[in-house]
Amino acid sequence: MNNTNNIDAYRRKFLMGVAGTATAITIAPGLLLRQAGAKAPGDEISNKNRWGMLIDIDRLPNGGQTVVDACQQEHGWGHEEESNDKQKAQWVRTVHVKEKLTGHEFDLPVMCQHCETAPCADVCPTGASFRRKDGVVLVNKHICIGCRYCMMACPYKARSLVHEALFDQKPHSPRGKGTVESCTMCVHRIDKGQLPACVEASNGAIIFGDLNDENSEISQALKAKGGKQIRADLGLNTGVRYQGI
Amino acid sequence: MFGKVHNVLALAAIIGLTALLTGCGDTAPEPRVETAKAKAEHCVEPTDVMRRNHMEFILHERDETMYEGVRSSKHSFKGCINCHVPASDASGKPVNYLTADHHLNPEHFCATCHAYVGVTLDCFECHSDNPEGAAPSDSTHAALNGGADHE
Amino acid sequence: MSNKQVIYSEVENNGIGYYGLLGFFGLFLLGGIVAFFTMEHHGHYISGMNNQIVWGLPHIFAIFLIVAASGALNVGSIGTVFGKKIYQPLGRLSGLIAIALLVGGLAILVLDLGRSDHVIEMAKGHLNFKSIFAWNMILYSGFLALVGLYLWAMMSRSKIAKKLYKPIGVSAFTWRLILTTGTGSIFGFLVARQAFDAAILAPEFIVLSFSLGLAIFIIVLMAAYKWTQREVGDTVLNRLRYLLAVFILGVLLLEVTRHLTNLYATEHHGVEGFILGGGNFYSNLFWIGYILVGTLLPVGLIFCRFLKNNRTALMAAAVLTALGGFALLYVIVIGGQAYPLVLFPNSEVSSSYFDGVVNSYSPSMWELLLGLFGVALFLAMVTVAVKVLRFMPASLADSVVDPHAK
User: Which of B24, B62, B104, C344 has the fewest Cβ atoms within 10 angstroms?
Assistant: First the structure.
């Protein structure tokens, strides 16, 4: 469980900072918090952070299905009753890959890769698809017109249109008919300093953290062993990286 | 000759419309805002301010949360629902904003007023109309969207 | 003007034919409205579209009409911008058809949206100028305004209108070129999709707009003149006839170029094999629908020596060109989505989200009704407009349009 609580690590670092610089904390506590990476619920997000995930597919429990289930549990997608299988929402799915020449096989969870230059945000006519300052790609459903251009543009097929009226949504995860949705990197959690649901369920296989902070666990792990992007050729500089693919 | 016919038709239409409107007046339920006081002593703002401006507060909070990630707002939409909508009614069922026949439910805090003043209420097409931790509604809504624990 | 003065007049048909035609269009308008409200109420699950095929039949109708709209204006532009006198009497009808086609196409797009009610947010300033869609909103409204002005410049007797006729005509023509570039670019810059990452789609859509717009113009012109018992001479029709052939072959040239370029890049072999390789619905639609029925057949009908001056052959060629263009759009847009997205090159992929499989699509009745709504809206607008304003020359006989013809 060494890496499931990296935000707590930030907190500890923050507290140590408090001990050392009592004067600074009286002047700008919010600033310090942000520098340390973690965010209190009342803080604004900052472009100093770039949240990302590093997924070690070899260590994922149950070939990744466990984290998919955790996401579904957290956000409640995929239970649409009227929609057929092709219309049901899937924020994340495990993809089985077999390389034709070598026969090498592996499974990996694929969802929104939170691109730095997100094609979905580029094509969105209203700006409903957007990239938050801290790197999380979201849909502002209040202004989404349901044109699905973002779904055409996404290289990862990470998005779903809600094809029917929904009831009993999770209070922390609004979703509704006629709008497009995808992985939110659990912003409702990370905004309060918690970990995304999939990371919590991953038994340490997914490291969540700040890619801009070179001392963060995720940056250290990426520096040491690297992490691949799916379709790196597109140059999208994704926030989600993989080890073992 | 045609003019006369038109007059008669117009008169009939007016009478019909009046009858219709009167009929509506008879059945329009008074809003039942007393359910508001279920949980807290008073709201985050004085009642008359809320009545007039709640949509402005929610709209402001919406953009702050959406774009800035601020989740501690005094005017949080989730906060409204947590306070104003009971987890269940007397019979233990959740109070949804729509009735089984898809009309605004006079028992639901938001719906009761919106029905009275005839203003559309589309928040709950995406947002939960129930407080956190409430039980999922029963088969009144065919499309159960993975309520608390669906599997 | 060296031409004999062209006289324009309103359509005087008042009988069962005229109102029957309007009523017929009305049925489809009603059907489309019912489809819209049904889909609005239930959500898109009642359609055949899904998370794999996100744009379906309504979009084909819409793109067809929008592309044809800019093309229909060409007939007028040739007269105004390039000074070809014989086309000038057709200018008013050309502008009218252009506006009606665009409105019909846009109506379909708006009615198919998941949240049409949120379009108001765009008016409130939520516009993303990086999005080609957002540009198109501006390009479409600008087109409607410019063509409206163009019509005014052609129809008004004021001096200022006469003065502005040429500059407005040139602006409208330029604008329409940009507009179709915008429509084509919707597909040309989807880098992630192997079927849609070719910028050549933008010029291809321009040439496609020439052929589709002209085909629609010919169909409306011939039908309208027949039903109003007005005369069209062979001079006008033959000009349009051979122009149509040029445009059809222009589309073919760009389509062939596009596939050849794609075949050069290994990355595209999969999707090209899928579209061209035969054995599936889309390749059949491409070869039979677009190449055979939509290209070779109409060109044959136009150039066949035995069919010289034959009006039925021209009408058939125009209808086939329109059908062929529809088939081509269907192959490009839906075939391109049916082919699986490549996540890992040279690998087989599978998942619960239909990765690695060819996606199937069968449109529902609602989508068809929405599409036909747009067509009916276009036709109804034209039918009403020619009755209330003077769009149609009373005669397009050879003696009127070209008194000096040999």
Answer: B24
Full set of structural domains in chain C with CATH: 9-268+347-401 (1.20.1630.10)
Strands C347-351 and A129-131: unpaired
CB < 8 Å from C in window 164-193 of A: 164-165, 177-180
Q: Which two tokens stand for residue A193?
A: 């300093």
For residue C348, the surrounding DSSP H or E stretch is strand C347-351
Q: How far is CA B102 from CA A194, B26, B98, in A?
A: 37, 21, 5
Q: Are C222 and C244 in contact (CB under 8 A)?
A: no
**Token representation of residue C299:** 């060109």
- Residue C204 contacts residue C185 (beta carbons within 8 Å): no
CA pair distance C147, C391, nearest whole angstrom: 14
Q: Which two tokens stand for residue B140?
A: 């009144």
Residue A26 domain-assigned?
no
Model confidence pLDDT, tens digit, residues C208-234: 999 999 999 999 999 999 999 999 999
Task: List, for residues B30-48, the tens digit of each pLDDT value.
Answer: 666 655 555 667 788 888 8
Residue A143 has a CB neighbour count (10 Å cut-off) of 24
CA A76 from chain center: how many Å?
Answer: 16
Asked if residue A203 is part of any domain, the answer here is: yes
For B71, the closest of A72, A138, A191 (CB atoms) is A191
Specify the CATH number for the domain of residue A148: 3.30.70.20
In the three-class reduction of DSSP (H, G, I as helix; E, B as strand; rest coil), residue C335 is classed as helix
Chain C partners within 8 Å of A89 (Cβ):
51
A201 belongs to a structural domain: yes
Strand partners, A240: A53
The CA–CA distances, whole Å, from B51 to B45, B57, B69, B112, C225 equal 10, 11, 26, 13, 63
Backbone angles phi, psi at A180, to 5 degrees: -95, 145
Burial (CB < 10 A; 0-12, 13-18, 19+), residue C315, is middle
Of the pLDDT bands very low, low, confident and very high (cuts 50, 70, 90), residue B74 is confident
Q: Is the dihedral of CA C344, C350, C351, C354 positive or negative?
A: positive
Q: Which of B145, B149, B150, B151 to mutate to test the interface with A (most CBs of A within 10 A)?
A: B145
pLDDT band at A114 (very low <50, low <70, confident <90, very high): very high
Q: Which residues contact A219 (CB under 8 A, 6 or more apart)?
A: A209, A210, A211, A212, A213
Amino acid identity, position C350 = S
Q: Quick one: pLDDT band at residue A57, thresholds 50, 70, 90?
A: very high
Q: Check residue A2 and give its pLDDT.
A: 46
Interatomic CA distance for residues A196 and A4, integer angstroms: 10
Q: Which chains touch B (3 or more CB pairs under 8 A)?
A: A
DSSP state at residue C100: H
Q: What is the pTM of this model?
A: 0.88
**pLDDT tens per residue, range C118-134:** 999 988 889 999 998 88
Whose CA is closest to C100, among C64, C61, C59, C144? C144
Q: Give the C-alpha separation, A112 to A95, whole Å.
A: 13
CA gap A174, A157 in Å, rounded: 21
For residue range C58-110, what is the model confidence (pLDDT) as tens digits?
Answer: 999 999 999 999 999 999 999 999 999 999 999 999 999 999 999 999 999 99
Helix axis angle for A217-225 and A6-20, nearest 10°, is 120
DSSP per-residue letters across C28-95: HHHHHHHHHHHHHHH-GGGSS--SSS-S-HHHHHHHHHHHHHHHHHHHHHHHHTS--GGGGGGHHHHH
Q: Is B135 on the interface with A (CB under 8 A)?
A: no
Q: What is the pLDDT of residues A185-196, one digit of tens each?
A: 999 999 999 999
Whose structure tokens read 């192959």? Answer: C331
CB contact under 8 A, A168 and B137: yes
Count: domains in chain A: 1
Q: Is position A154 within any domain?
A: yes
Domain holding A68, by residue range, is: 42-243
